[in-house]
Amino acid sequence: MCVWWYMCVWWYKGMDVSGGNHRHEAPWKRMSKEELDNQYSPSRWVVRLGAEEAMRTYSQIGNEVTKRARATGRSLLNVPYGDGDGEKLDIYLPEAVSEAMPFLVFFHGGYWQSGR
Q1: Could you tell me the residue range of the domain that residue 52 belongs to?
Q2: What InterPro entries does UniProt report for this protein, alphabetically (predicted)?
Q3: Is 29 domain-assigned?
C-alpha cells in the first residue's frame, strides 16, 4: 500500500501521525529510505504500463489538459506563493465571473520519479 493512503486513513480516523510519543506510530516512520522511495514513486504503482510509458502517457495527458484549461478562460501563470523557485501556481478563471462561482484548489502532494 502507498504511504499516502495510510496517512489519509489515519487522518480520517482522527489519529495523530506527527510521530510523537503515541501508541500508534505513523507507518512511514518505521520505513527504511528504500521503502519510502518505493512508496513515493508513482511509476512503481502503475500496473498497466511500464514506468517510461506511464510517464510519457501522463505527461501527454497533463499537457493536453493544461492547454484546454488555458484556452477556456483567463490564466494567471506562475503566481508565487512562496520564496522558492518552484513555489508557483497557475490560476484558471472562467470568462463569466459571478459571486456564486465555485472554487477549487488542488494541491498535488507528490512528485514523479523516473529512471526505474
Answers
A1: 3-72
A2: AB_hydrolase_fold (IPR029058)
A3: yes
Sign of the CA dihedral running 7, 38, 51, 66 = positive
Q: Specify which residues 80 forms β-bridges with.
A: 88
- What does the block give as the cell for 107? 494541491
For residue 22, being part of any structural domain is answered with yes
Q: Which residues contact 112 (CB under 8 A, 6 or more apart)?
A: 42, 43, 55, 58
Q: How far is CA 11 from CA 15, 62, 101, in A?
A: 6, 29, 29
User: Is the pLDDT reported for residue 18 higher than 80?
Assistant: no
Q: Does residue 86 surpass a pLDDT of 70?
A: yes
pTM for the model stands at 0.48
pLDDT for 26-60, tens place per residue?
Answer: 888 898 999 888 887 777 777 888 878 888 888 89
The neighbouring-strand residues paired with 89 are: 79
13 located within any domain: yes
Phi then psi for residue 8, to 5 deg, are -65, -45
In a domain, 106, yes or no: no
